[in-house]
């Protein structure tokens, strides 16, 4: 018997009016700004009024390095949130919004799956409440203002060879990675080389996700460096008087979105930086608001723990002064087999030896997360092809690492399949074991911060960087940016910069191709290997199968 698809399950959901979801968290209806009947923004006024309350416990869901076998991190986040509510805890979840790029590309949506989803699924994975469009518009308004300023006399003395602000769009389009703009004669401005990034890589996205309110947002937008003069002095967005207009465009986008799970539990969905090219977490304002309203807040960080969890701890928690109580690392038997050398087509056959060969990838993530002082539990996201022997092999391995692995069936059973995980999370959270600390101090030199991440998280033996990169980092230190954290832009598929190197490799090198200063967001981006800030579409994009059915419903979205 064929399983229902995610979109079919979501379409059959018994959704409650968003007013009732807000009531579960004590949000009055007048504090909600509805977008239809099943989604709403939470007003800044209400958020401000809740700041004198205490905080609930923060639970991070992270994962092993992603494989084509699938891990199910968002699904587990939703399942755990539902599971906590099922055992009587007042819980909310916080996840990121979906980007159109992967939706129509290869990865698909970001609303969970099976019976552990956030709804409305189609809206969340498409235009939702327009936040990404607002971020795209604000970013590109600044790009237009820069070129317009140069056209009308360039009063600020911008060196057009040193304009660092690129344009963005929320779609995978490799043809726009590097372009020449302003061709066509005098009326169109001064030709220069530039390019596009995907919206989730925009510094505006990072700023929205790290800002605490509109005043903080505008201040950070003004701090963005957009170009340099011939003497290499920086030109800021506020020098162009762009920060006010950008804030106006982002006013509504700044307010977090409230939706619900299939089991009618509250979910905040806000912001969406990728973890391989940005900092990979939902917004600070959504997380901190949820912590004021719920006893448990379950959030996720993108891709594997080497990227998302590290940035969650070293950037988001550092900036927002958050103290996670527990970390859940999601793994699957199938992914262990892939890390053990089994090809995707053979994953259905039992292979305990391959599972054992692949487990060191999981072990590396367990050790890394424990290194931040956060207790760990492993969630084995169950697939129907898993055998008892394979599951036991993972459990035994995790026990050897000083943690516990719990089999979870939330994809098939919803909250009932996550009760054991929820119970363990509560036990760890209430034990008070967490002694969270970031990986490195603020005052460590920038290059040493990069080396610390590469050696302690990736298990590399060295970082390769040209003299110009080291000199650039030193120059930023001299300018007062030395206390910023590092955001590593690296492939998600491996601890190395080679996406094909699975498992737990050691003694490899991490080449740094470029460094970028995100002065408004408050971090330094280190571009590693061949990672791109504008993805391309695969040979057979998901868009091939997406269409409208006879009744006008969306078909093929996943």
Structure overview:
- The chain has 558 residues and is α/β, with parallel strands linked by helices.
- The strands form six sheets. Strands 1, 2, 3, 4, 5, 6, 14, 15, 16, 17, 18 and 19 form a twelve-stranded mixed sheet that branches. A four-stranded mixed sheet has the order 20-22-23-21.
- A hairpin with a 2-residue loop joins strand 5 (112-113) and strand 6 (116-119).
- Helix 4 (73-86) crosses helix 17 (419-431).
- The protein starts with 5 loop residues before the first helix and ends with a strand.
- The mean pLDDT is 95.
Rounded average pLDDT: 95
Q: What does the radius of gyration come to?
A: 23 Å
Could you tell me how far the N terminus lies from the C terminus, measured between alpha carbons in angstroms?
20 Å
SSE-based structural type: alpha/beta
Task: Specify the helix fraction band.
Answer: 25-40%
Task: Summarize it.
The protein is an alpha/beta fold and 558 residues long. The protein is built from 19 helices and 25 strands.
